[in-house]
Design goal:
47% of the residues lie in helices and 15% in strands. It is of the alpha+beta class. The chain has one domain.
């Protein structure tokens, strides 16, 4: 059944979105971390996703598409990188802080709680949409099997 490949596509999206929610949670948890193992303040992390199989050569993609004329196969999605947000850290004046510089400024993480909340909402909605699609395909498969009885 070719439509069962939809389950693989949806499952890959569920995994990627769950990972994205984990990274957003990590950003929120470290929104006030001024000292990391690498030194300096925590930098916001971003999840970079890519279509699975995108690294295949142009020739291979064309050949595969011609061979699968009557069967549409999906690619799914995968996480390819966890990138650091290059935006500037926020200086906050607090001369009593142990990580303050000579002028009394502490470099705070570039994590914006509002932006993280919006990203979390978007990731949650994408997760829910893929879960709905997964359940719909699963129900279609169950109904198809019931018809065969």
């Amino acid at each position: 059944m070719a439509f069962l490949s939809s389950l693989d596509i949806s499952a890959s999206a569920l995994t990627a979105e769950r990972f994205r929610m984990d990274i957003i949670s990590e950003n929120m948890a470290n929104s006030s971390t001024t000292r990391t193992e690498n030194g300096g303040a925590y930098r916001r992390k971003l999840v970079v996703m890519q279509t699975q199989g995108e690294e295949a050569s142009q020739f291979r993609r064309i050949l595969q598409s011609k061979m699968d004329v009557d069967r549409q196969t999906g690619q799914g999605v995968r996480v390819v990188e966890i990138a650091e947000d290059p935006s500037e850290l926020t200086p906050v004046y607090d001369p009593t802080h142990p990580d303050a510089n000579e002028e009394g400024y502490v470099m705070m993480p570039n994590v914006d709680p509002v932006k993280e909340t919006i990203d979390m909402m978007a990731a949650t909605r994408a997760y829910e949409a893929n879960l709905t699609m997964f359940n719909a395909v699963k129900n279609m498969a169950i109904k198809a099997l019931e018809m065969g009885r």
